[in-house]
Amino acid sequence: MSAPLAPARPTRMSHTLRDSSTMLRRNLLHARRYPSMTLNLLLTPIILLLLFVYIFGDVMSAGMGGGAGRSQYIAYVVPGILMMTIGGTVVGTAVSVSNDMTEGIIARFRTMPIHRGSVLIGHVIGSVLQSVASVVLVGAVAVAIGFRAPNATALEWLAAFGLMTLVALALTWIAVGMGMVSPNAEAASNNAMPLIVLPLVSSAFVPVDAMPGWFQPVAQYQPFTPAIETLRGLLLGTGIGDNGWLAVAWCLGLTALGYCWSKRVFDRDPK
């Protein structure tokens, strides 16, 4: 009689996927139990959207030229607000990672037989999912106040969704790195503030050409402007030009930078 077969040992990949899914559930559970930060970060782009459309809409549209009115300005400003939503959402990730680093749970995870990278992967995937959900909610508000993209095809909508997901992934890895090097949650929030400020000085609210000449390079040569212009082109049918590959290049570069930075800090022996 032949001996019974030994149970198959889990592969490295299955081990990583199992541990990463566990960490993802942990982070999503934290977000559900403590929704105040998520709500605060989500309300900011919604308030800005309503403020710039209904309070400043007529004035801001004058900077676009061509007799643009409030309805045209809604179409112009929504892509920028959606990108700002992503930047605001990942600030919560920096705070969450900082809490894990300072409260000792990371030290505990180091002693457990889990895949080391699963801790970071759980944070990243959870943040990207939250960013996508936030974009959908803000987009619903935009549609409710009159935003339309009638000329966008299904393929363009898919490309727009893929671009926003790629931006969320890139900014999340940067936020993870910021959270890991911050001594506390308050410092992590302050360190991640450029992810909210940069969209304000991009082409989100007015065209770069309408800005003062000395300020135009600040708005032009940063990651948010090509991403916003690409999203605007996909949804509204305006020209994209070089912004498409610039946006993808920025995203890939920031993702690689954030990943290497976060992994290096995480693998460092605790003091």
From TrEMBL:
Membrane-spanning residues: 73-98, 119-145, 157-181, 193-215, 244-262
UniProtKB keywords: Antibiotic resistance, Cell membrane, Membrane, Transmembrane, Transmembrane helix, Transport
Pfam families: ABC2_membrane
Topological relation to the membrane, as annotated: Multi-pass membrane protein
Transport listed as a keyword: yes
Family matches, as InterPro entries: ABC2_TM, ABC2_TM_bact-type, ABC_2_transport, Nod_factor_ABC_transporter
Subcellular location: Cell membrane; Membrane
Taxonomy, superkingdom: Bacteria
Domain ABC transmembrane type-2: 36-269
Family to which the UniProt record says this protein belongs: Belongs to the ABC-2 integral membrane protein family.
Name used for this protein in its record: Transport permease protein
UniProt source species: Streptomyces ehimensis
